[in-house]
Amino acid sequence: MKRHHLLLLGLTVVVVLLAWTVSQSKAPQTEVTRSQLFPSLLDSINEIALVNVRNAQRNTELQRDGERWTVTNKDAFEADATAVKRLALQLANARIVEPKTSSPNRFAKLGVADIGDENSAGTLVELLTADGNTLAALIVGHERDGSTGDQHYVRRRDEDQSWLVVGELDANADPITWVDAQILDVDTQRIMTVLVEKSDATPITLSKAEQSDNFFTLNNIPDGYEQKSKATVSALGALLLDLRFNDVLAAAKLAALTPVREVTVTTFNGLVVTLKDYLLDDQKLVTFSFAVNEELAAAAVSSAAATSADQEENTPEAADTNATEEKSADETPQAESERLRQRTARWAYVIPDYKRRMMEKTFEDLIKTVEPEKPDATQD
After folding, report:
1. 218 with 323: CB under 8 angstroms?
2. What would you report as the CA-atom Rg of the chain, rounded to the nearest whole angstrom?
3. CB 248 within 8 A of CB 283
4. Which residues have C-beta within 8 Å of that of residue 15, sequence separation ≥ 6?
5. Dihedral over Cα of 95, 100, 106, 110: its sign
6. pLDDT at 309 over 70
7. pLDDT tier at 310 (50, 70, 90 boundaries)?
8. Closest CA to 56 of 151, 143, 139, 161
9. Less Cβ crowding at N or C end of the chain, within 10 Å?
10. Structure confidence by residue, pLDDT tens digits, 195-221
């Protein structure tokens, strides 16, 4: 019996020793799991002066200019500095989960092949100092399917080892994703008139009598015609509503060109927005200028003052105070014009197709022939 117990004790010791040996053999793997992909990057964040994000189709070049960042391959249009900082912090905080293949023949499967390769599907991110020293260079490959949290396959450039890392990696090579793409936002209710002029076409003039009107009226309709549906005509009044761009370049590149179309939009409080439409090679671009119709602006101030005075007589004191504070916070057309001028003066924009279709409507698109009245069947 004793011999039996001794044998069991001996087996137990062997199992414990084997378990300890296995755990020790896995210790380096545990250390790898806890390590950062770029351990020293966090201490060098403030040294980043250049960021390149590139894939097989697109390229974004970002450069620091004091506290600002610009997209150098978009004529130095201002970039979102917060987005640039976020990407740098994401790379600094990326942590290794486990090593993956080190065979170049298998890189394409993970999306970490060199960007110049035929089957490249990854995105190369480079962070550099002002002197051109590389702080980090990483090829971001496919996101791991079915993973909990953000996990990506990556490979440090010029290394054969690939890795699975955990952490967000917002590496988009499209330059427009790095900027605020809104040009302006003028609510349709504010619009009083829209005028579209093109040298070889009948001008289009839309108008509303009151700001509260929901639809525009097409003016100067010839005899025998009438406007199409109110919705069709009024769609042009929404041209400036949340107007964004798909691409941008310096307006100076259009200096020698003549606009093919001009659109003038006037608001009830006197803001005047002029859009000039250009054709540069095969690209359609729009520039903006701003002015103030002082007569309309003065009338709007008088109307607001009269409304405020009426509210003072008919509303409780507390509600009246709130209304007055809201009125005083409103932007004047002069201030709005200057703000928008500073934002857009140097730039020409490619606007979305659905907005362009609004601009390119012709007078003929908005009218139809008047159908003759049908005879009354009840009469002989």
Report:
1. no
2. 32
3. no
4. none
5. negative
6. no
7. low
8. 139
9. C
10. 999 999 999 999 999 999 999 999 999
Report the candidate in 271, 275, 270 with the shortest Cα–Cα distance to residue 288.
275
- Predicted local confidence at residue 308, as pLDDT: 64
Tokens standing for 16?
Answer: 């414990």
- 262/236 Cα distance (integer angstroms): 14
Residue 112 CB contacts under 8 Å (≥ 6 apart), including other chains:
122, 139, 140, 141, 153, 154, 155, 162
SS (H, E, C) the chain: CHHHHHHHHHHHHHHHHHHHHHHHHCHHHHHHHCCECCCCCHHHHHHCCEEEEECCCCEEEEEEECCEEEEHHHCCEECCHHHHHHHHHHHHHCEEEEECCCCHHHHHHHCCCCCCCCCCCCEEEEEECCCCCEEEEEEEEEECCCCCCCEEEEEECCCCCEEEEECCCCCCCCHHHHCCCEEECCCHHHEEEEEEECCCCCCEEEECCCCCCCCCEECCCCCCEEECCHHHHHHHHHCCCCEECCEEEEHHHHCCCCCCEEEEEEECCCEEEEEEEEEECCEEEEEEEEEECHHHHHHHHHHHHHHHHHHHHHCCHHHHHHHHHHHHHCCCHHHHHHHHHHHHCCEEEECCHHHHHHHCCCHHHHEEECCCCCCCCCCC
- Mean pLDDT, residues 246-263 taken together: 97
pLDDT at 173 over 80: yes
Our measurement of the distance from residue 47's CA atom to the centroid of its chain's CA atoms, rounded to an integer in Å, reads 27
Q: How far apart are CA 158 and CA 137, in angstroms?
A: 9
Give the global pTM. Answer: 0.81
Count of residues making up the chain = 380
Q: Which residue's structure tokens are 């829209």? A: 194
Residue 365 has pLDDT above 90, yes or no: yes
Rounded CA gap, 70 and 55, in Å? 19
Tokens found for residue 230: 């109110």
C-beta separation of 125 from 136 below 8 A? yes
Residue 345 and residue 77: Cα distance in Å, rounded? 12
Q: Say which amino acid occupies 85.
A: K
Give Cα 356 distance to the centre of its chain: 18
Portion of the chain with pLDDT greater than 70, in percent: 82
